[in-house]
């Protein structure tokens, strides 16, 4: 089947994923856009006067939206980058954050990326290791700076291949407390709203519920993403199952 599709793509002058895109748009009954694309392709080939250089790859969605997939991740990652730039740690341990943020952090300081599904990338200032947030490969009170965005809420729900554990979030927070040294920083984010478990997607925490898992820590900065930044806790107007994002920078006393 794969060989047939490759041959069909080649015969039609399509990019390797061009036929998939075209079938997707056909299923969506976007025939007007397909016709307009065909006219544009003919015009472009005619003006280029060398149609052999043209490989067809229909893309219609980019005309109406940018490539930002999740606004919450956009805002929280920008905030986390700002914190790293401001604090200037010599070494960063990131646990499970987005790949682009990890790559950016590695350009600010030596970075160790921890994930049960480690990144398969190669950068001079980045080391990627396979570990769980509940069993970190560091000694007590040894880490200067930990970054972990939208990770704690998933631990123990099985969504990402870990085992079921109703105490998963508590164990993750205990491990973060253990390895972070005195005066060290934790930059973290979690879903914020009426406390509940959305199985097996994530947990939603109340603000105080989450912060109580870090006794002996002081708040250096706190922001709510709704998804835009706000200093006002939005939970009073939220229903069970709804969530925004709590972003917090904590310092271990």
Secondary structure blueprint with pairings:
Blueprint: H1 2-12, H2 18-27, H3 31-48, H4 71-87, E1 91-95, H5 99-106, E2 110-115, E3 126-130, E4 143-149, H6 168-179, E5 180-192, E6 196-198, E7 202-204, H7 207-211, E8 217-225, E9 229-230, E10 244-252
Parallel strand pairs: 1-2, 1-4, 2-3, 4-5
Antiparallel strand pairs: 5-10, 6-7, 8-9, 8-10
What does this structure look like?
The protein is an alpha/beta fold and 253 residues long. It has two domains: 2-63, no CATH class; 71-252, Rossmann fold (3-Layer(aba) Sandwich). It is 32% helix and 25% strand. It is built from seven helices and ten strands. The strands form two sheets. It has an eight-stranded mixed beta sheet. It has a two-stranded antiparallel ribbon with strand order 6-7. α6 (168-179) links the parallel β4 and β5. The longest helix has 18 residues, at 31-48. It is elongated, with a radius of gyration of 23 Å.
């Amino acid at each position: 089947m794969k060989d047939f599709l490759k041959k069909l793509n080649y015969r039609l002058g399509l990019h390797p994923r061009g036929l998939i895109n075209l079938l997707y748009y056909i299923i969506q009954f976007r025939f007007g856009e397909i016709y307009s694309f065909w006219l544009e392709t003919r015009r472009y080939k005619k003006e280029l006067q060398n149609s052999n250089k043209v490989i067809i790859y229909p893309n219609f969605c980019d005309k109406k939206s940018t490539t930002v997939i999740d606004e919450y991740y956009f805002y929280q990652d920008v905030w986390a980058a700002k914190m790293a730039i401001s604090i200037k740690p010599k070494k960063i341990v990131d646990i499970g954050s987005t790949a682009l943020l990890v790559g950016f952090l590695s350009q600010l300081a030596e970075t160790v990326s921890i994930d049960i599904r480690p990144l398969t990338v190669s950068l001079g200032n980045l080391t990627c290791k396979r570990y769980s947030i509940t069993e970190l490969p560091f000694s007590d009170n040894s880490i200067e700076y930990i970054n972990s965005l939208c990770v704690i809420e998933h631990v123990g729900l099985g969504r990402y291949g870990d085992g079921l554990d109703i105490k998963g979030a508590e164990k993750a927070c205990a491990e973060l407390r253990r390895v972070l040294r005195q005066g060290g920083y934790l930059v973290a984010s979690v879903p914020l709203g009426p406390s509940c478990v959305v199985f097996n997607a994530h947990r939603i925490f109340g603000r105080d519920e989450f912060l109580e898992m870090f006794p002996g820590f002081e708040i250096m900065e706190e922001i709510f993403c709704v998804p835009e930044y706000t200093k006002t806790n939005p939970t009073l107007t939220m229903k069970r199952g709804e969530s925004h994002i709590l972003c917090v920078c904590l310092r271990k006393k």
